[in-house]
């Protein structure tokens, strides 16, 4: 029987909840179970809840969006404060939980003059005041600062107390609210008066306490953690004094969940909802798929070449990829930049080869199947190569992440000597913003019942042939995954052929390159985009290119709507975006830029009768312009799954290593290089202000929550916080958050009654739960973190789920964000991965065509359309301190880089 102290955490869907659970676990050494406030297991409210509460020593009512007066926002919390004496137990309310407590005692909850989200303030607490007696959780606590995240506050009549009486009255219960004992305050200068904000209370007669500030925030001083220790000491003292005995029955995995813990604690295998119970669904192998064993049992081989100083990643692509229709290039275009810090220069670039022949996996939100397609060999002879396409069902209670995990784990290579390459082969591709919405139970379609296209929200290629460029060492690694059953001579021959093709190219020896110098970096000279839709001037293709930018006035109205939600307590921060559309003549051949660079004759419709001035630049030419104009460490050029993506992203989303180190790099706070901010020192002065730091801090705490959900309590740190970095055209404020995945569970003990039994569980789910619940433990991987963290918090706001719901209504576009706000990257066969946020980018879908003279209607499956449509997303984080004009200007600043390629090339 487990006699560990237990705490029940009521989760109101806040994006900081897991941070509180981690704090309670590490500071108190308690087991913390998490129960959603809207759990369907408590239909009759108090009675069933009281049964569950007998298993716990105390309860914490957590923060969340909304109002304490709205039943749907507080859910089960409202029953906690009305428990009968026989069911009573100690409770701590935090933020929304605090406000709910004050409301239950007769207090009023009102809007602050201006919300305080991500603001750090000194806490004026009662300290060692003797008259409070027992229950003072601030006794012995030194002065400290804490992070605030709230737009609403508790009104117990504090503003009616004259200034001269404040010091003597602030710790006394208000006459009209005798059950509320104030314990802490904060003060906010409002430019004409000081707003008094209640920060801590205790109930006069019941074991209830509350804190308005967030004790778990990375910027709340650790000195304040003593308050949590004091609360639990008082809670346990109350339990002993009243003779309350905790029922140590097994915990309820079907009702509550836990964060992954250290090996000494019990691990709940269902903590990550989307990849839980991996053994309880039909695996790909069991599905009977012809592709189930594709890529299994492969080996790795490579060849290293020195990279000439003048050769860049696009040159390599142009030498090797001219016949390909699909491309994946992850391009550290800023690697050679000399005017930016070394910490923002990407070290590696990765080029996938032969993507046309690779296995592709596609998934669309709302479906219950994955589409798999590959060219497979069935024997020998001229007809041995066949294209196989299948629909693989993922099951009624499963998810695509489970299928991906099955596929990925079965193809992991055994430990081998260090190759020096971050990617040996494996999954490469993209994930849309809408895929992330599905993972947090937000309908990607909004009010629309159906999506009138078949575009994938997840598209991966299983890459077995690739090139990795190490910009630091100046080397190029050609690499291949090949069947271990085949001869190595074929792999050697392929490696040699690629090496020879590179070495024999004029690019390699003579430095010849196509003339792309027109694409200069003129970001600072670009004017603010026009206030109305426009058609570009000039002749040829450019004369028929139409650019429609967001209306500035409407965008400012959207900012105001965001601030209304923030003031009401529904969100702390909303990452508002808008979309620019570029409609232009369709390029007859997407790889035309490669052929021009190689001086090859054009293919397809690009014959002799075409005037180059009247033909739109290809997507590859646009990408070369973008990487020149706006070099970035996480650039990418992707043609896959019917989409074309050109990205100059400066933001890493998630990197994970084979040994379980996960790193996320949220980016919030942008200043464009200009006369007002020409240097890093100038940018630091502009960005180290409360508004910008608060934007970044909120996302840091959100990312900590996401990592804690998989890595577990006490396994997340912030090695870099609120650091300003220099990029080619902007300065950005970044932070680095790291998590360490929990170690694998110990192997299960073999039953004594079956000493010779086959080890059926090993490799198919691992050990069963220590608590005997019939569930299995397993080792978490970077894929769990990826699934748990989408969509990127830097593109949503906090709390994530409620913010995404609000944004879906405000942004109001008939379309979707699509690839913008999603991620692009890889997961390799050695268990590593690296993903960037898809920002500073442009994309188009092959099936979106517009006919001349048809009024601009989109044509699904528009193969015969003469125009193509590109999309650029841009926006920023709206907070209580934002101004509509400032947010509009930030959105247009971010838009300038990608949009400029259509004006220059």
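Sequence proposed for the structure above (905 residues):
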């Amino acid at each position: 029987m487990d006699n560990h102290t237990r705490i029940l955490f009521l989760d109101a869907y806040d994006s900081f909840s897991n941070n509180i659970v981690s704090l309670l676990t590490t500071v108190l050494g308690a087991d913390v179970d998490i129960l959603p406030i809207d759990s369907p297991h408590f239909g009759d409210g108090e009675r069933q809840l009281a049964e569950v509460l007998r298993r716990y020593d105390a309860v914490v009512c957590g923060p969340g969006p909304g109002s304490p007066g709205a039943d749907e926002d507080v859910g089960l919390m409202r029953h906690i404060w009305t428990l009968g004496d026989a069911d009573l137990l100690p409770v701590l309310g935090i933020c929304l939980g605090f406000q709910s407590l004050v409301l239950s005692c007769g207090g009023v909850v009102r809007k602050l003059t201006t919300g305080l989200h991500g603001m750090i303030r000194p806490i004026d607490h009662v300290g060692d005041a003797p008259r409070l007696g027992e229950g003072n959780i601030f006794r012995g606590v030194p002065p400290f600062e804490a992070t605030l995240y709230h737009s609403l506050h508790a009104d117990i009549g504090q503003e009616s107390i004259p200034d001269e009486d404040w010091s003597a009255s602030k710790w006394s219960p208000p006459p009209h609210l005798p059950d509320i004992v104030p314990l802490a305050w904060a003060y906010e200068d409002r430019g004409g008066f000081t707003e008094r904000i209640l920060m801590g209370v205790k109930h006069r007669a019941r074991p209830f306490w509350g804190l308005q500030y967030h004790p778990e925030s990375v910027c709340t001083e650790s000195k304040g953690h003593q308050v949590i220790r004091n609360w639990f000491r008082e809670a346990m003292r109350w339990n002993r004094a009243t003779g309350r005995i905790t029922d140590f029955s097994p915990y309820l995995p079907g009702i509550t969940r836990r964060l992954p813990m250290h090996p000494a604690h019990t691990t709940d295998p269902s903590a990550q909802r989307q990849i839980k119970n991996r053994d309880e669904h039909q695996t790909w192998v069991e599905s009977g798929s012809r592709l189930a064993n594709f890529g299994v049992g492969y080996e790795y081989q490579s060849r290293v070449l020195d990279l000439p100083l003048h050769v860049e990643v696009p040159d390599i692509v142009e030498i090797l990829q001219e016949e390909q229709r699909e491309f994946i290039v992850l391009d550290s275009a800023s690697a050679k930049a000399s005017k930016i810090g070394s910490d923002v220069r990407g070290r590696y670039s990765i080029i996938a080869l032969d993507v046309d022949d690779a296995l592709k996996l596609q998934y669309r939100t709302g479906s219950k199947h994955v589409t798999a397609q590959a060219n497979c060999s069935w024997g020998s002879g001229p007809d041995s190569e066949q294209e196989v396409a299948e629909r693989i069902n993922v099951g009624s209670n499963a998810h695509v992440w489970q299928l991906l995990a099955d596929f990925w784990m079965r193809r992991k290579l055994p430990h081998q000597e260090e190759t020096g390459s971050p990617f040996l082969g494996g999954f490469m591709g993209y994930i849309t913003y809408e895929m992330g919405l599905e993972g947090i139970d937000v309908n990607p379609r909004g009010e629309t019942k159906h999506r009138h296209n078949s575009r994938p929200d997840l598209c991966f290629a299983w890459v077995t042939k690739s090139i990795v460029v190490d910009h630091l060492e100046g080397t190029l690694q050609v690499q291949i995954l090949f069947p271990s059953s085949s001869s190595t001579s074929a792999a050697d021959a392929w490696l040699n052929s690629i090496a020879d093709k590179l070495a024999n190219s004029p690019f390699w020896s003579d430095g010849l390159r196509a003339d792309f110098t027109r694409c200069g970096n003129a970001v600072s000279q670009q004017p603010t985009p026009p206030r109305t839709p426009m058609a570009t001037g000039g002749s040829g293709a450019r004369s028929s290119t139409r650019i429609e930018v967001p209306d500035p006035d409407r965008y400012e109205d959207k900012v105001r709507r965001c601030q209304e939600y923030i003031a009401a307590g529904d969100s702390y921060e909303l990452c508002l975006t808008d979309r620019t559309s570029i409609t232009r003549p369709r390029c007859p051949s997407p790889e035309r830029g490669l052929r021009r660079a190689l001086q090859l004759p054009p293919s397809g419709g690009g014959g002799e009768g075409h005037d180059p001035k009247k033909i739109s630049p290809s997507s590859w030419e646009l990408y070369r312009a973008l990487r020149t104009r706006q070099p970035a460490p996480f650039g990418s050029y992707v043609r896959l799954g019917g989409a074309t993506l050109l990205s100059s992203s400066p933001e890493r989303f998630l990197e994970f290593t084979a040994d379980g180190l996960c790193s996320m790099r949220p980016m919030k706070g942008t200043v464009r290089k200009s006369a007002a901010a020409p240097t890093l020192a100038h940018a630091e002065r502009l960005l180290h202000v409360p508004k910008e730091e608060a934007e970044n801090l909120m996302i840091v705490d959100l990312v900590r929550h996401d990592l804690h959900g998989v890595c577990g309590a006490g396994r997340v740190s912030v090695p870099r916080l609120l650091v300003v970095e220099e990029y080619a055209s902007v300065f950005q404020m970044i932070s680095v958050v790291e998590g360490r995945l929990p170690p694998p569970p110990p192997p299960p003990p073999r039953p004594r009654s079956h000493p010779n039994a086959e080890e059926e569980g090993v490799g198919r789910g691992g050990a069963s739960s220590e608590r005997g619940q019939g569930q299995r433990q397993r080792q978490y991987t970077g894929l769990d973190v990826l699934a748990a963290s989408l969509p990127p918090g830097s593109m949503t706001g906090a709390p994530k789920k409620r913010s995404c719901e609000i944004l879906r209504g405000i942004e109001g576009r008939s379309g979707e964000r699509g690839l913008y706000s999603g991620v692009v990257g890889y997961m390799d066969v050695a268990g590593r991965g690296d993903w960037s946020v898809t920002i500073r980018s442009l994309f188009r879908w092959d099936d979106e065509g517009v006919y001349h003279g048809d009024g601009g209607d989109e044509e699904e499956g528009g193969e015969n359309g003469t125009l193509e449509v590109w999309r650029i997303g841009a926006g920023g984080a709206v907070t209580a301190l934002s101004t509509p004009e400032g947010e509009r200007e930030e959105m247009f600043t971010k838009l300038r880089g990608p949009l400029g390629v259509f004006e220059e090339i």
